[in-house]
Amino acid sequence: MQGKVIIVTGALGALGKVVAEAAQSRGARIAGIDHAPSQLSATPERIEIGGVDLSDAAQAKNAVDAAAQHFGRLDALINIAGGFAFETIGDGDMKTWQRMHALNVLTALNASRAALPQLAASKAGRIVNIGAMGALQAGSGMGPYAASKAGVHRLTEALANEWKGKVTVNAVLPSIIDTAANRADMPKADFSKWVTPQELAEVILFLASDAASGVTGALIPVGGRV
Q1: Which string of DSSP letters, residue by residue, matches 98-148?
Q2: E-strand spans in the chain?
Q3: What is the model's pLDDT at position 226?
Q4: pLDDT over 70 for what percent of the chain?
Q5: What is the pLDDT of residue 40?
């Protein structure tokens, strides 16, 4: 990862922080984009662009362009920004479906569209999306979330085919991620069966690395220990 310029969306969240820190520890330069306000001043190694609604195409483009201008190029985009909702279809609200689509599909779509020209100019352009193992077969209450993450899966496959030979595009499909928020929501669960942010970061950074040059269009389940 030495010297690579990587955008991490959702960089201030539980997974985004771990991925950004792991990449930076390996020599990458990081542009963190998040809806939350920026917490750091810009340095030659890292910039945070806060207050960005990535579901808005114009805001996404402005943020990606600012990252490219700061570093002079882009090598990888890791689309972590997203959201979750648990709601049954019959008793739920249509706004939840719209919100899940915006948070999970549009954020990845808009960031990718904005970054693709810069990524194609790199010798090793990479996009890594975050899908969900739960989108492979949706259970009760998972409809809005699973449908939106299934959209991320199809987006990944379409982009991989459209940009084959120029940019690799892959997705990781985590099981439940071991975060403080998930532990609070499911206190009786067996946390040892969940995938940790650090484990997930290893797979994400592999897909963003030179070593993954032959991998594109892959949907890779991560976690789900028996």
Answers
A1: HHHIIIIIIHHHHHHHHHHHHHHHSTTEEEEEE--GGGSS--TT-HHHHHH
A2: 5-9, 29-33, 46-49, 76-79, 125-130, 167-174, 219-222
A3: 46
A4: 99
A5: 83
